[in-house]
Amino acid sequence: MTLEPLQQRIRDAAASGKALRLRGGGSKDFYGNAPRGEILDTRGYAGVVSYEPTELVITARCGTPLSEIEQVLEKSGQCLPFEPPHFGAATFGGCIAAGLSGPRRAAAGALRDYVLGAQLVDGRARVLSFGGRVMKNVAGYDVSRLLAGSLGVLGLIAEASLKVLPRPRHEATLRLQMSEAQALESAAGWAAQPLPISATGWHADELRVRLSGAEPAVHAAARKLGGERMGEAQADAFWAGVREQSDAFFAGPEPLWRVALPAGAARLEAPGRQMIEWGGALRWLKTDAASQAVREAAARLGGHATLFRAAHKAVSAFTPLDPARLRLHRELKAAFDPAGIFNPGRLYPGL
Fold it and tell me: What DSSP string describes 287-298?
């Protein structure tokens, strides 16, 4: 499949004013505000365009299954270092549009940090290219990274290039019994030390710490931190459960909030159950509390709260923007999608 059929659908939609719902595998349908419009299925435009392991860059089309990307990288001992969640039959384009990162994000960086270039089909059906396929070639405003987390409101991410990294040579996961306060204090202290910590996860008075790197460094850090060492299969299952939200913590009817906070933030004063990742910078909150109460609790600590999953989203999934930021979003939307056809309202109401 070429891009032309997708471009023609976009031309027709722009001419008629009909909204388009950009969709790959549908694994992130729950994320953001309610999707609207006729489905524009991107899965037909698929395939790895280029991959040279020695260059640490992979370029693929939007409809390529994310699992296929990871299989290709694994054969060369490489990976997507930000550990993107799948949540089902995820596609490469959907992964970038959602902009979500997994347990390794605090150590390795976010998805946005690894985007080198992208090809976008805008609201006029033009194919626009930003960035490239090599490091250090972006001049001016980096639009390719702007697309990460945009939820498709600016256009169809037809193709993208990501930096990849070698898989860790050795990993070990420790289990330590400690309270929430102790876990936050410990994580803050470890952040100032040269420890190969690649992920942390606290829930119900138990902290799990994953160490990644050279075997001597991992063993030395394990001795220093103490605790019980988990079996490899058990540890892998735990981190996969956190990344894919199949862990028992995420079960239940209560809405799931994703609270992003500055590193070193204190305890989140909100009712409900919590799982803490990224050394305290990410708090998952299962609660029936009112949205205003949750967002005010996050704001008091200098962060913001996203209504990540809920049976019914009566409020905007994302924290409302102040007038200045909202104006910038509207101007970007108008520049790339003047007819307003792409995923209307998915990111913010009115966009």
Answer: --S-HHHHHHHH
The reported pLDDT for the residue numbered 313 is 86
> 305: which residues sit within 8 A by CB, 6+ positions away?
257, 258, 259, 260, 285, 291, 294, 295, 297, 298, 319
| Mean of per-residue pLDDT scores for the chain | 95
Q: Let me know whether 11 and 148 are in one domain.
A: yes
The neighbour count for residue 50, using CB atoms within 10 Å, is: 11
Q: Does any domain span residue 46? A: yes
Instruction: Convert 202-211 to b/e letters by CB count within 10 Å (16 or more is b).
Output: bbeeebbbbb
Among candidate residues 343, 349, 314, 316, the one with its CA nearest the CA of residue 330: 349
CATH number reported for the structural domain that contains residue 50 in this entry? 3.30.465.10
Same domain, 55 and 150: yes
Range of the domain at 73: 4-166
Within-domain flag for 134: yes
For the stretch 53-109, pLDDT in tens is: 999 999 999 999 999 999 999 999 999 999 999 999 999 999 999 999 999 999 999
